Amino acid sequence: MNTYLNTNTIRELLNRSVAQLEPKTLAGLSAAREQALLRHAPGKTGLHPMTPRRRMVAAFATVLVTVSLFGGIAYYWEQAQDNSEADLAILTDDMPVDVFVN
Amino acid sequence: MRLSRRLISFALAALLAGAALPALAKSWAELTPGQQEALSPLSSEWDALPPKKQRYYLDLARSYPSLTPEKKQRMHDRLAYWSKLTPEQREEARRKYRAFKKVPPATREEVKKMVKEQEAQKAASGPAATQPDPSKH
């Protein structure tokens, strides 16, 4: 026996099935649907929606990481510059190099 | 959040660019005549030097044109010797040099005079007098 199922038929069948469900189960399904819709709302990403507080913490952490990163790079270049100046002085000073090396 | 991602991307790009710079090695032939003149004592070993060391010497070479002829000569005399030192020896030399710079100028001059006298005595008495040591220049 072949039964032709179109969208309307399926919708009717589902509505009839839903009508047979207990109110408690219906409430649970409805809550789950709401939650799922919230997660996929425009502008929301991931499983946890970003609260303003989370957003602030994320921004602060990013700024902190960026500042540390640039601070580290700046410190490295400053050290390299200091060493270069000291080395040039040692190489050109009228004191013999071995006075500083040994 | 989009701003945070942009900042992270920017920071990572900057870090990668910074890390990529030292990887650029230059052959001796690629150096400018000025750089070649400043670093001539290293000409034979230049192409085998790691890029990081090359960059270090190129930094030194940048100051070379502003040196007096006497200082240029000293740099040339000492450069090959300096390049053979270990990083630890160089760090120790910098530490001592910085400490020496903090000594009052009058005391510093006295020390220099003393060292020169000792060097002259050694040169006059020892067999090393005929074999100049680059580190003593």
Task: Supply the helix-strand structural class of chain B.
Answer: mainly alpha
Measured between the Cα atoms of the first and last residue of chain A, the distance is 101 Å
The major β-sheet of chain B equals: none
Q: Supply Rg of chain B.
A: 21 Å
Report the mean per-residue pLDDT of chain B as an integer.
83
Secondary structure tally: strands of chain A: 0
Structural class of chain A: mainly alpha
Low-confidence stretches of chain B: none
**Total number of helices of chain B:** 6
Q: How large, in whole angstroms, is the Cα Rg of chain A? A: 35 Å
Taking the alpha carbons of the first and last residues of chain B, their distance comes to: 61 Å
Name the chain pair whose interface involves the most residues. Answer: A-B, 32 and 43 residues
Low-confidence stretches of chain A: none
Largest sheet of chain A: none
The sequence of SSEs of chain A as H and E is: HHHH
Task: Give a verbal description of the structure.
The complex is a heterodimer of chains A (102) and B (137). By secondary structure, chain A is mostly helical. Chain A folds into two domains: 1-44; 51-102. Chain A is 75% helix and 0% strand. Chain A has four helices and no strands. Chain A has helices spanning 7-20, 23-39, 52-92, 98-101. Chain B is mainly α. Chain B is built from six helices and no strands. Chain B is extended and about 65 Å long. The A-B interface holds A 45, 50, 55, 58-59, 61-63, 65-66, 69-70, 73, 80, 83-84, 86-101 and B 1, 3-4, 7-8, 10-11, 14-15, 18, 56, 59-60, 63, 67, 71-72, 74-75, 78-79, 81-82, 85, 89-90, 92-94, 96-98, 100-101, 111-112, 115, 119, 133-137.
